[in-house]
Input
Amino acid sequence: MDDVTTTHRPHKHLRTESVPTDPLKPRIVLVGNPNVGKSVVFNYLSGLYVDVSNFPGTTIEVSKATYLNYELFDTPGIYGVSSFNDEERVARDIILNGDIIINVVDAVHLERDLFLTQQLIDMGKRVGLVVNMMDEAKRQKIAVDLQHLEEELGVPVIGTVATKNKGLEEIHDLVVRAREGKQNRTLHADLHARLSTVGSQGEALLLMEGDEVIAERHGVPPTDISVREEIYIDRRNRVNRVLQRSVSDVETGRRLASMIGRWSVSPWFGFPILAVVLYALYMFVGVLVAQDLVGLTEDTIGKGIVEFNIKSWIAGHAATTVDVDVLDAEGETAETRSFRFDEGLQADRALWKEAREFPGASDAEFTFTYDNPWLVLFFGEFGAVTMTLTYLVFLLLPLVLGFYFALSVLEDSGYLPRLATLVDRALRFVGLNGRAVIPLILGFGCVTMATITTRLLGTQREKTIATTILQLAIPCSAQLGVIAALLATAGPLATLIYTAVIFSFLVIVGTVMHRTLPGETSPLLIDLPHMRMPQLNNVTKKTLFKTWFFMKEASPWFFIGALVVGVLQVTGALFSIMDALEPLVVGWLQLPREAATAFVMGLVRRDFGAAGMFHLELSAFQIVAALITITLFVPCVASLMVMLKERGLREGMIIWFGSLFLALFVGGVVSQVLI
Amino acid sequence: MRSETLSMLGKGGRARIARLPEGEMRSRFIRIGLMEGAVVSCLEKLPGGTIVLVFNHQEVALSGDLAASIEVARL
Ligand SMILES: Nc1nc2c(ncn2[C@@H]2O[C@H](COP(=O)(O)OP(=O)(O)OP(=O)(O)O)[C@@H](O)[C@H]2O)c(=O)[nH]1
Ligand SMILES: [Mg+2]
Output
């Protein structure tokens, strides 16, 4: 096999498809394997922040920015240009359309990464190579001869430490110097013979490599896959030869970080390390954030100050009844008094003053009931505006921030892929592979947030299974707090039964779906990146970025959910639903009729459902039955909406009604058996 | 020579890849450098068969069924 360098005369190109682009600006595309630092480079060049993390496959969508007079694209990490998964399909088209490819590779993983580099070169693209992570290479005593690499590949090469901005100033020069590299001569000739059928050398190559999508696009039968294998093996061998001449290394030293990395996937230490991680996660998110911080923000600031002020301002000129509940030290209502304002608070300031001073030094809850149903809808007890505001800003925001912070730390340390490895076998029982552990853990924070994250799973089948498990069997942190409190009053036996039922249910549903859904679990094949110390500055940026993304995506749904329930309440439909549910609740679940209210409220916010149970006098087993029903049923409206968006109307509805039915069924069976 | 698979490799074991499965997985293996003739060693083996391999300075985890589809010659 001989190598050739083609003269730099661009072949005729044909636009292949439809990423919105500006025809006047040349397009630079950042391409590389997962986790090599593409997004750091993108951030540097564009000044925009996109997701950076030590977990392969964090960038799922394409980001676009302007850099000088170029259009700049960040693509998902891929191992090669083809159509093996969603990321590859997305990246493939951007690459085909790109004018200049900036290929980022990991200095430590050149054997792996240069395969893609050579493929890009074989596509006839103008390529510039960024050898990133030079610091890691140095630490591991791997010497990369950039000069030699440049000669061997025939494209310009620079070395960088992207996280420290080292070497990145040369990128501009690299963009200008990017050119076509050394290609396999026979392959090149073959490709040129095909240029008349397809638009570009890149497409010709993908066609030869059996890419079915490209074949269909040009209406030709896909090439036999044996041709692809030949090309791949050839390319692999060439890469290995290039490397032999450009890289030398000394035995890897034993660093503490790599020891921890090793232990975390060992059968002996792996699970204890996991236990420690989960415990730390629980202490941080479950106790510090969900209880202490949210207690402060939700009750004191959200309800006590913000909601109170909004509601009393609205009530200023509107006919309103204000009920004041004075609370005793236990938080129970000790005394209640109603104040009536026919023309609003401002018209009777003396009475309003009396109302505010009525509780004296004790805590109190103020309930504003407006005569005008519109005001009730937006600002009343379950007012769409007031409730959404408190919920989003003072409950969810701190929780999501806390959760993403913890997740970012785990992600950047490189622990997550090891966790995926550790639990792969267990998740296989329910038809998932190890990667699904990420959305499942996130679900304990917020199911809505986790449902969005199922995007990182490889196949539609896995997304469906993971979403169903999330919606059904994973209680979110808002619910967990209430569940834990109720179980504490119900005792250890109740807790045991609750946990056992929920867990076995999760396994059964997963197993049934695994057995009945067509398709197979995609096998786990995952890179374990080096463990490294998370950088506070990246962790912070990432936490804010993810939180912002989540809030932007989910907030409207929380508002709409609250509005729907508000309408049901104002029109009286809520009470009809509760009446309709009563026989089921009383007869089948054997709970007091008021429990129906709690169930319906659970639709707006999952935690309301559980919280509603607080005020009912329930026996230990009634608590178990109620909590099981609540956990399995009522995904909150926001998570329902997000699910419908992610999974489509039909599948989303099946999951939702399925969970409704199963919740009542399982809850009822437990109740009938126990009580 | 008796045909063994990667899944039979214990912790610390080394082997040369003898035969990859056919189909799409084959191309994916070749891409990451896991091809016939490559030498791999087993860093860890988890109960249930998930295996962590080291080759070419990289650590890669494979689920048990994948490992079982790759024939190797033990070194
Ligand atoms: N030590 C070191 N770490 C780096 C360097 N460049 C990036 N990183 C880290 O490598 C990890 C991956 O960086 P990203 O920019 O997210 O990688 P990516 O290529 O966009 O990854 P995907 O989008 O998942 O394909 C992050 O933890 C970065 O902080 C570098 O030069 N040296
Ligand atoms: Mg990225």
